[in-house]
Every structure is written in structure tokens, then in C-alpha cells.
Amino acid sequence: MDREWRPPFPLDLHGVLSPLRRGRGDPTWRTVSDGGVIWRVSTTPDGPATVAIRRRADGTVRATGWGPGAAWEIDRLPSLLGADDDPSAFEAHHPVVADALRRRPGLRLGSSGRVWDALLPAVLEQKVTGTEAHRSYRELAWRFGDPAPGPAGVVPDGMRVPPTPAQARAIPDWEWHRAGVDHARRSAILHAAVVAHRLEPAAELGGEAGRVLLRRVRGIGVWTAAETAQRAWGDPDAVSFGDLHVPKTVGWALRGHDLDDAGLLEVLAPYVPQRQRAVRYIEASGFRRPRFGPRFSPRDHRAI
């Protein structure tokens, strides 16, 4: 199944889609440098789907899909690439943000439309390093997700479908431990998997209402709901409060020093209701805060 779509706005294809990638080696994501093709594997209401997305020199985006959910994914291509996002009212109040806005006009907030696909890796990223979380997600997808539909799933190192709620519920306790997932994160995932069908409407609700719905699940707090909202419905105001790095990065970019969550709330106040868009511009600007002392060391929960 194929579709061509020409966005009526500047589009940074990789910038819009990159938040959906969960680290190096993500088996649900692949970038082919020759031709700049991005391959994604996802769940949909109709079943799994693989989509290959490329952008031509004239700006036209072409998507090719495989699997039972291909039609659903192809139909949502504009939304995935930010067509539902409206950055026109955004005003940059700081030079770093203004410079990023000027240099990255094609950086929009896309929406995958799938809550579970964003929620599962977000829970795995709770209170651990990215290295730990990405390893766990990679192992769970390889061992419990199905092969990707189409050609991406048949090669020796083929791509995988994210584990579905039913597959997550069927994973034995010792396999969670083997994948380096502690009891708290495992419990949150299992609680979410039980009511996953009731969480998908959060993407339609959007905004704070969608995040409130997610937070009704035990183990899903402000941070996890925000991380999910950013990807599932491109929430422009869903800031990841409680994050280890975001307050420090934003603080150094806008104030020249670390911030805590209270300081982050204050410095982003001028950007309501588009605070996450401001954070996204700062992250995409290439700004890096100074490094002091040793980095946080990953833990291996498999050894506990």
C-alpha cells in the first residue's frame, strides 16, 4: 500500500519522527542512509504495520506500508508528520529558542495516534538511564514481539512489532527480570496492559484531559503521561516534569544554571500552552549544558 503526500509547510522529516525512536538498536525503527528511508513498525487497531517513509527532492513524502494495519498507518501519515500541529501562535521569549525556531522551521510535533506504543517504552524509562531502558525495550521486543510485516521482518536481523498488551501480560515474571525490568515498572506495564483498550481514547481527548486519563493507571505519573502524550498526540504543553535532564538542560539554556521542577515551571510559564514546544526547540538547538562530575551509572537489574 502506497501513499504520496506533499506537506503544505516546511518539514524536517527526521526531526519530527525521531522522538519515536527508542535508542540505538530499536527493533521497531530503522533508518536506511541510502535514500534516507525511515522504517517504522507499530501496532494499530487493525493489527501490526510496517511503514517505510521517504522524502523526495520536491518535498513530496512517499509512504509504503505492509501488514493488516498498513491502511490505518498510511491514512494517518499527515498527522504522523505534524499536519495536526499548529505552531503559528508560538512566540519565542528567549534567544536560544528564537534561534532554534529560525533554524528549524520544519520541526513540528507529530502524533503517532497509538497510546500503547508510546506508553510501554515510557514506563520502561522510569527512573533509570536511557541505556537501561532501551536495552529492556529491545530485549522485550525481540523475544516477545512478532516479526514485522513485509520485507522488514524476514531478513536475519529483521524488525519487530512492539509487544501488544496481551503479549505483555503473558510474559512470565522471570522474563521481566531477565530483561532488566524491576517490579515497579513491570507492575505499571501490567496495570496499563489490562486497560490498554480504555487508554487509547486519550489520544483523541488530547491535552490535559488525555494525560489525566493515563494517570488513572497505577504507576503512571506526570512524567510518564507527558512522555506518552508528546508522542501519541503531539501534545505541545506536555512537559516531562520529574525528568533528570530536562530541568538542567532548559535551565542552562535559558538561565545559565541548573533548575529543579519548580524553576522549570517558572521559566516555561511564558510559553503556556506550548511549553513542550519550547523544550523541543531547546533540545533540537544543539545546546549542551556543562558536564560536572561523573555521569549517572546504569544499574543492571538482572544482577539484583
UniProtKB/TrEMBL annotation:
UniProt cross-references to SUPFAM superfamilies, sorted A to Z: DNA-glycosylase
The keyword Cell division is annotated on this UniProt entry: no
InterPro entries documented for this protein: Alkylbase_DNA_Glycosylase/TA, DNA_glycosylase
UniProt keyword Protease, yes or no: no
Protein keywords: DNA damage, DNA repair
Highest taxon listed in the record's lineage: Bacteria
Transmembrane regions listed in the UniProt entry: none
Protein name: 3-methyladenine DNA glycosylase/8-oxoguanine DNA glycosylase
Organism of origin: Pseudonocardia parietis
